[in-house]
Amino acid sequence: MAHILAADIGGTNSRFALFEYSGGRLEMVDSIWLKTHGASSFQELLSQLWASDFSAQPGTFQSGALAVAGAVQHGMVCENLPNAPWGVDLNEVSFGSVPVRLINDFVAQAYACRTLAVEDSLIIQHGIAEEIGVVGVIGAGTGLGYSALLHTHGTWIALPSEGGHMAFPFYGRAELEYAEFNCQRSGRNWAEGDSVVTGLGLSLIHEFLTGETLAPEDVSQSITQESETAKWFARFYGRACRNWALALMAHGGLFIAGGMAAKNTMLVNHPCFIEEFHNTHVYSNFLRSVPIKLNTNEESGLFGAAFYAQQLLGSE
User: Can you tell me whether residue 59 is helix, strand or coil?
Assistant: First the structure.
């Protein structure tokens, strides 16, 4: 049996968990949530962790992985942690002699697809996934996250991505007018996934269509399936998912993560979502065969980090 440290460090909360790995199965045995802004540095956050009643201490686990919402360099550094007052540099802290690495938060979501975290996922579209086919992961929250999970040489590798900053495709006069509106309101060089299929995007769509300025959570609570805001957002979300499934040829399936759909499943259960996902002049049969699941497990990032750390045990 091996003990594994996992973490999911976000702009609001930093979640830590201790896992036991035995017989090919990961089991969470302890966890703690700390306020990210309650520490002036990553070093101070770790000091708070070790001083708490958390059951793990350096020397009590065999590997570790920390998921962060930002670009990771060489598995060790995340200079800019969005919405947090500091970055993370593992070179500046000590976990003992065991391997500990940083991974992107959506890389963790991809690895979570190989764990119990997704067992209760909601089915958006039925399909048959190839056992070792490429798995696509996408999810809207504060940003639009992308990752992919590939099987190679007997192990799983998740690819990091900053796909949320790709220019978002729009079609037709109304959508092009919205693209210009989106750029003006968001102050960005172009309308990107991070400003379209996100909380910000939901607010901007609603403002464009109704003239009403609301926070994303207020829009989410007020819209119904008949709302134009819901139709537009679901269509854009379906388009992002279709494009990612096609880009990867995701024969292993597509998982939707992120807080937006988890908190309001209508955004991906809406008829406009699946209609847009199927909207293609090529590969129609493929798109209709891709199993799509919505992962609503808030702890999936921890499970994904633990899965990656478990793989480190075999590579060190």
Answer: coil
